[in-house]
Design brief:
heterodimer; A: mainly alpha; 3 strands; B: mainly alpha; Arc Repressor Mutant, subunit A; three-stranded antiparallel sheet; 6 strands
Chain lengths: 322, 237
């Protein structure tokens, strides 16, 4: 039974069915014999019922309108009920034909829209590639963050941390390495496009960890993998992926591998990273001084890329004695 | 430098379709830049209407040149698009366009009525189509082709609907005036049917004055209107 339903759903309503019947008769809408149409329409509705289809209410309304028209036509004009008050407008035939004509026009318009819809599917717009210097301009707008801004920021964090930890002075095992932290920072940046400076240190358990994370950050900046910027003056520093040309990252990647283990080991000769190992006992001032030294070193690194090679060489040399 | 070619170069490189306002701003920016080129300065105060005229001319030239692409204006914004007949190769190049499934017949009819008659109430659309349109309206609203624009100041304050810019984009129309046969459909003249009610000749005696009234009332087409009675009577039997 249900397969017959498809056949009837072709009609979008009683008007659609009427138009179909008119078309089958091959006559003009204005000349159609509504009496005959009424009979055919009711036959269809009857057929729908035989097929056990749910006949929509609209079909029944239309059927009754048609029956009314038909019944009127059976009566001689002089015996028809005269509805004077509503004049011509009340003529049900006129009303129905007007409705049919209107519906027909919109149905045609819908067909034209369908043609447009199909045509539009086959039209492809030109999508030019992004013009290269756009990206550059974007980043240059952001105020650059210098090494001392970063230093001040990390000192602030260390100070806050020291205040929090002032009472409890536990001794920690130094289990953090810069290379580990590099991984951590990189993951953080790939997960989200930009990270606030303080967010980097949110999970840090002690000073040593903060120091490691900070060194990792500096290392990544030196390798031009990260970029620091401030959305506005005095706002918190934000860190995002550097928009470096691919060339820069490729050759540097191996050097990073070499450099990462050295950072914490290279620390041995210099006083600074040993300080975190010195288990929280120092005063804040000490810590700040140490970091200043550290920064200066890093700053030098950043200044010229030529230094890099030298440094790597020396880095390689240093771990060996250890 | 002719503005026509400047516009062509802009639209050739633009990342997205550009409307006349945006294009005019580009002309103004180029003319007022610190190191503005001498050639750019004359167009500082070019008018949007003038740009439209030039763009239309440019589009005609491209059309006449019979290239594989043309310049079109969709929803007020100009862009270069390929001609539809090259779609088989473009599909192979960039893949099938990410487009929602085609609209059903019911949705197209409803959309057509809203497009030509907007702003329009749901009841008016239902009257034209002769069916309930709740489901179809839902689809059209969800797809963003139609939106509610306000309420009619009649009893019950029913919601008024109109089409969205997305509708124009979906069908590649420049504006609502670009709809096919727009004038005809916006105001359908209410025509009096040629044949007024007359009793079928074979069924009842028609008083002569009634017949004359009918003939006087409407004109030549009346005859065909009256001719089918024998058929009609057979149908009624």
């Amino acid at each position: 039974m249900s397969e017959y339903k498809v056949q009837f759903e072709v009609f979008e309503g009683p008007l659609d069915l009427l138009l179909y019947l008119i078309k089958k008769e091959e006559v003009d809408i204005y000349e159609v014999n509504l009496t005959k149409l009424a009979t055919q329409f009711i036959e269809y509705v009857e057929l729908m019922r035989q097929f056990d289809l749910e006949v929509a209410g609209e079909f029944l309304v239309m059927a009754s309108t048609l029956m009314y028209i038909k019944s009127r036509e059976l009566l001689p004009v002089d015996q028809q009920v005269v509805v004077e008050a509503e004049d011509e407008g009340d003529d049900p035939r006129f009303e129905l034909i007007r409705q049919l004509v209107e519906y027909k026009k919109f149905k045609d318009a819908a067909a034209q829209l369908q043609v447009l819809e199909e045509k539009q599917e086959n039209i492809y717009p030109r999508v030019p590639g992004k013009i290269e210097f756009q990206a550059e301009e974007e980043t240059s707008k952001k105020p650059e963050v210098g090494i001392f801004d970063l230093l001040n920021a990390v000192n602030g964090i260390l100070r806050r941390f020291a205040a929090k930890e002032a009472s409890a002075r536990a001794i920690y095992e130094d289990k953090w390495t810069v290379s580990e932290k590099i991984e951590y920072v990189r993951n953080l940046i790939t997960e989200r496009t930009s990270v606030k400076f303080s967010e980097l240190f949110e999970k840090a358990a002690n000073r040593a960890e903060i120091v490691c994370t900070f060194l990792a950050l500096l290392e990544l900046i030196r390798m031009k993998q990260l970029a620091c910027w401030q959305p506005e003056p005095f706002a918190e520093i934000e860190i995002s992926k550097a928009v470096a040309p691919e060339m820069a990252t490729e050759p540097l990647a191996p050097s990073m591998e070499a450099a990462t283990p050295t950072e914490d080991k290279a620390a041995v000769p210099t006083p600074e990273p040993s300080a975190p190992e010195g288990e929280e006992v120092e005063s804040n001032e000490d810590a700040e001084d140490e970091f200043d030294d550290d920064e200066d070193d890093e700053a030098d690194d950043e200044d010229s890329e030529d230094d890099e090679d030298e440094e790597n060489e020396s880095d390689e040399a240093e771990p060996k004695p250890k | 430098m002719e503005p026509k070619f400047i516009l062509e170069s802009l639209l050739f490189s633009a990342q997205r379709p550009m409307n006349v306002k945006e294009l005019r701003e580009i002309f103004a920016t180029a003319a007022t830049a610190e190191d503005a080129d001498e050639a750019a300065k004359p167009f500082k105060k070019i008018k949007e209407d003038d740009l439209t005229v030039v763009l239309e001319e440019l589009a005609r030239e491209h059309e006449a040149a019979g290239r594989s692409y043309r310049l079109v204006c969709v929803a007020g914004a100009w862009q270069f698009v390929t001609q539809p007949e090259f779609s088989p190769w473009l599909r192979a190049l960039v893949g099938v366009k990410n487009r929602p499934s085609r609209l059903s017949q019911a949705a197209l009819e409803t959309l057509a009525i809203i497009a030509y008659r907007q702003p329009v109430t749901r009841a008016e659309v239902e009257q034209v189509r002769g069916v309930n349109i709740d489901g179809t309206m839902q689809t059209l609203l969800e797809r963003g082709l139609v939106e509610q624009s306000g309420r009619a100041e009649v009893i019950g304050r029913p919601a008024l609907y109109n089409t969205t810019p997305l509708f124009l984009e979906y069908f590649g129309l420049r504006g609502l005036e670009d709809l096919p046969a727009a004038d005809e459909l916006r105001r359908i003249p209410v025509e009096r049917p040629p044949a007024p009610i007359t009793a079928d000749a074979g069924l009842a005696t028609v008083p002569p004055e009634q017949l004359q009234l009918g003939e006087a009332g409407e004109t030549p087409v009346q005859d065909p209107g009256n001719s089918p009675p024998p058929e009609a009577s057979s149908a009624t039997n």
